[in-house]
Design goal:
Structural class: alpha/beta
Number of domains: 2
Length: 360
């Protein structure tokens, strides 16, 4: 029986300050937590049993978001990783849960358009100890990379190579059979003190194991940086948005154009909203322009602002002659532009931030 292992621990240091109060896997893209897309994709493969690796610090928030997995017809078990000691350490932590089962390992902050069906079918037919998902990239020095032969069998792995050896970056999805456990037992911590999954796969290769790779031909986002998160938001809004304006009060000379989704209890007064965009429930928009690629959470207030290409989380207010673009704004934030019209600004704010902008 195939299981899934989703990694939702870690500290999200590259996404601070927001990840100081919210796990990076729960940051919403197009108003849906990243890890929910992961669960949808796992469910589409017919996998029922999912182990979720959580940390002691953020695990409760992940549990509250995913619950028992029933909304996806999944059976979720939670496994606490006491410290962020590497991807292979996460597998080691889940050893009792995984047992002798083969499993799909999925990093909970990754988003991909690639259908995993062919990759899974190939693995289940047998012959490989592991199948690794890879993506051809322009900047392989940022990633672990796979050196492959003409048949897409992996010859070796190199972590963040200083010199070019391959353009195939390792994406955060892996299929393993039980042989990976023995390989993990035989590796030692890396220079950064972690048990690396790349080292475990390399050990599997050294012992004569078969490791193949499957190529991602669509998009892939490792949402560990603000820029990647905003790009993922743009792509998902562009590809999946539909027009759904229900239970919304639209007054004055307001216009809602294109593929815009607006939740129950929201109101649009004297404003323009241009899709693709999504506004949650209880959002109040007054005398504002909400441009394309904007995602606004529940119970937000936008009064006298221009907003484009930005993610705003729940319970935040933006008021008084603001022009905000390419920004990430946490929960319960309050931003005001002051008395004078201001230039375009870009911000990256954690929860409960208060900002007042003024120009002299």
């Amino acid at each position: 029986m195939l299981k899934a292992l989703v990694l939702s621990g870690g500290t999200g240091t590259r996404m601070r300050p927001l990840t100081g109060t919210i796990p990076k896997q729960l940051i919403p893209v197009a108003n849906k937590p990243i890890i929910h897309y992961v669960m949808e994709q796992i469910a589409s493969l017919g996998i029922n049993d999912v182990g979720v690796i959580i940390s002691p610090e953020t695990g409760q928030a992940v549990k509250e978001s995913l619950a028992d997995g029933g909304r996806w017809n999944l059976n979720i078990s939670y496994i606490v990783q006491d410290k962020p000691a590497g991807l292979a350490h996460a597998v080691l932590t889940a050893r009792d849960y995984l047992g002798e089962s083969s499993f799909l390992m999925y990093l909970g902050d990754n988003l991909i358009s690639h259908s995993l069906g062919d990759m899974l079918d190939s693995f289940l037919r047998g012959g490989d100890d592991s199948v690794v998902l890879v993506k051809k990239v322009r900047d392989p020095g940022r990633f672990g990379v796979a050196v492959v032969n003409d048949n897409f069998k992996i010859l070796r792995l190199v972590e963040k190579p200083e010199r070019f050896v391959s353009s195939f970056a390792l994406v955060g999805l892996y299929l393993f059979n039980k042989s990976i456990h023995k390989a993990i037992e035989e590796i030692t911590p890396s220079a950064r003190g972690e048990l690396e999954i790349t080292d475990a796969i390399q050990r599997l290769l050294e012992k004569g194991g078969n490791v193949s790779c499957s190529l991602v031909r669509g998009w892939w986002f490792d949402t560990g940086r603000k820029e990647d998160l905003l790009k993922a938001n743009r792509v998902l809004l562009d590809e999946r948005s539909e027009r759904k304006v229900e239970g919304v009060i639209i007054s004055g000379d307001s216009r809602v154009e294109g593929r815009v989704q607006i939740g129950q209890g929201s109101s649009i007064a004297g404003s323009v909203v241009i899709g693709p965009a999504v506004l949650g429930e209880g959002v109040e928009v007054i005398n504002s322009y909400i441009g394309p690629f904007s995602s606004i959470g529940n119970n937000c207030l936008l009064n006298g602002v221009r907003l484009e290409n930005t993610i705003v989380l729940n319970h935040s207010s933006l008021t008084d002659k603001l022009y905000i673009t390419e920004s990430l704004i946490g929960r319960h934030c309050h931003i005001t532009g002051g008395a004078a019209t201001v230039d375009m600004v870009r911000v990256n704010l954690g929860d409960w931030a208060e900002v007042r902008l003024s120009w002299v």
